[in-house]
Q: What sequence folds into this?
């Protein structure tokens, strides 16, 4: 049965998380990381979108955590609780996650159609920066991303034990919804954006 969207707060049952297609366990990391090219090409670095320069904002109880992460590519570090002003789709992904790879064309299509009505930001975790940069090219990642190499901060603060996971954040910083697992179609992504953020694509 397909996983259902779940509203905040970030309380995820371990059983549900274990059903997500990409495992974040240490053994899986060791196996899958062998398949990831560790050296980024110049094209991969050029293709990485710069992270946004955000205005500081006071964290809110029903918003993203007060967590600052360095940019995967160029640009400043991003404090997640500062994602305000524009509705935001925050996608947690990893270089070793094949489901994340399959999702990226959906995000690319949605981002192109949304224009300035939506902001897309990724959180790349549990893989090195070099692996992430290579995957930007290999996956066709259409948005800037921040980096948590160990994944500990993302697990602790976002409760994202296994990618992909997607958070839908309103313009005032409220997390309106969360999708655990792969978004499997363009219609599904469009419906989630409209349901949680009120943006029709």
A:
């Amino acid at each position: 049965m397909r996983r259902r969207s779940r509203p905040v707060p970030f309380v995820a049952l371990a059983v549900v998380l274990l059903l997500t297609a990409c495992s974040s366990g240490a053994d899986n990391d060791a196996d899958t990381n062998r398949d990831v090219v560790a050296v980024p090409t110049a094209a991969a670095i050029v293709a990485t979108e710069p992270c946004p320069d955000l205005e500081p904002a006071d964290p809110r109880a029903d918003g993203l955590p007060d967590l600052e992460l360095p940019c995967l590519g160029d640009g400043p570090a991003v404090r997640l609780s500062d994602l305000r002003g524009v509705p935001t789709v925050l996608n947690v992904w990893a270089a070793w996650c094949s489901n994340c790879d399959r999702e990226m064309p959906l995000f690319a299509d949605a981002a192109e159609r949304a224009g300035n009505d939506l902001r897309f930001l990724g959180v790349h975790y549990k893989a090195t920066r070099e692996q992430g940069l290579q995957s930007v090219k290999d996956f066709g990642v259409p948005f800037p991303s921040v980096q948590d190499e160990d994944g500990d901060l993302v697990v602790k603060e976002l409760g994202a034990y296994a990618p992909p996971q997607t958070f839908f954040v309103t313009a005032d910083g409220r997390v309106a919804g969360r999708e655990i697992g792969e978004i499997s179609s363009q219609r599904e992504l469009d419906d989630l954006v409209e349901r949680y953020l009120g943006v029709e694509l």
User: Anything to note?
Assistant: The longest strand covers residues 119-125.
